[in-house]
Amino acid sequence: MKSLLLTLLLVASAVATSHGTSRSEPYLIHPLRLKSGSGSNGASLIKGINCASWRLGVEAHNIIDWKTVPQECEEYVGNYMLGLQYRQDSQAVTREAYLYAKSLNLSRDGKDIWVFDIDETSLSNLPYYAKHGFGAVPYNATSFNEWVEVGVAPALPESKKLYKKLLSLGINVVFLTGRPLSQKHITASNLNLAGYHTWTKLIVKDVSFTDKTAVEYKSAERRKLEKSGYRIVGNIGDQWSDILGTNTGHRTFKLPDPLYYIS
Ligand SMILES: [Mg+2]
């Protein structure tokens, strides 16, 4: 009986390891059960396009300026976001980012920085989107801001691991977000709660950028950083607008996000 139990324990831990999880870092960002149905294998169709192909088109920036996830793909996107693939896709990005960072000849003068976006990069709003159609319903600023103001968004586990490794390499972190000044305090508190305890700057969107695109706003802020002597050795975000434009950094990394598009 004892040996049977031991075997079962070993199998269970092997399964946990093969899923890239550890006891200290829960596998799920959001505790919802996996959805099941036709969307789970990407077989759902939108006007002749497979939902998995739609997601690839989004990630490759071939499909741009989209307003919502196609209705037909809500279940597919929900399954993707709550399932293993999203975590593994994120891990593939942050692993590459770390390998790159490790290869750098750093000056250790405090001027080497890595720019982190916040939403769907450092913090996950998946608990919100799981209740609001996984991006298939139009964005509602009022209800989204109510969620932000609670300040309990969890960290994206892979990004947090990267953040810690970069700090240990001597690279400082700058958070650059499209969140407004009115949300700066709750954002700092949420970052701390999620395990991000140190940063060189937390840059929020000034009202002077209200009519500007995210590409324009983020480019301008990165330009200011470089003008004040910082070297942007890396830049990571979930939106193409995080990594396009000017002063993008020596290397950019794009995390997956099939929930929404920001230009
Ligand atoms: Mg983002």
Automatic annotation (TrEMBL):
* GO molecular-function terms, A-Z: acid phosphatase activity; nutrient reservoir activity
Q: Which organism is it from?
A: Senna tora
Keyword Cell division on entry = no
NCBIfam families (UniProt xref): plant-AP
Q: Which family does it belong to?
A: Belongs to the APS1/VSP family.
Q: Which residues form the signal peptide?
A: 1-20
Q: Which UniProt keywords apply?
A: Glycoprotein, Signal, Storage protein
User: Mind telling me what this protein is named?
Assistant: Stem 28 kDa glycoprotein-like
Q: What does this protein do?
A: May function as somatic storage protein during early seedling development.
- InterPro entries noted in UniProt: Acid_phosphat_B-like (IPR005519), Acid_phosphatase_pln (IPR010028), APS1/VSP (IPR014403), HAD-like_sf (IPR036412), HAD_sf (IPR023214)
CDD domains the UniProt entry points to: HAD_VSP
